[in-house]
Design a protein that fits this description.
two-stranded antiparallel ribbon, 4 strands, two-stranded antiparallel sheet, 34% helix, alpha+beta, 34% strand
């Protein structure tokens, strides 16, 4: 999808909580919502599995959409001519932040849980 269409959706979820983001993405009528929904869901699963964070405490701290390459093809038309087709792509970056107060110590800064 084009970066402009994805940005329209990503601007709505930036800074919101994980659960609120999933509700918004399920109810929005745009076709770009489903791939972004899968991306947010995957990022939360990675945070939960790799870092041991609780999904209820996650907030989308950074969400950006950059333009990717444009795939160029030729569509055959009448009288042996070709009509150029340009298919836009984009790169979507989602960063989740944990807002749980039990991860922070007053003296030593952030501490991380050991996952075995």
């Amino acid at each position: 999808m084009s970066a402009h269409k994805a940005r329209r959706v990503v601007d709505q979820i930036r800074g919101r909580s994980y659960e609120e983001t999933l509700m918004i993405l399920e109810l929005m009528p745009y076709r770009a919502c489903y791939p972004i929904f899968k991306l947010v869901y995957s990022a939360a699963a990675n945070a939960s599995h790799n870092m041991g964070f609780n999904e209820a405490d996650l907030v989308i701290s950074k969400a950006e959409v950059n333009e990717g390459i444009t795939v160029k093809k030729l569509k055959p038309r009448a009288r042996g001519r070709g009509y150029p087709i340009k298919r836009s792509t984009c790169h979507i970056t989602i960063v989740l932040k944990n807002t749980s107060p039990d991860l922070y110590s007053d003296d030593y800064g952030p501490r991380f849980r050991k996952i075995s």
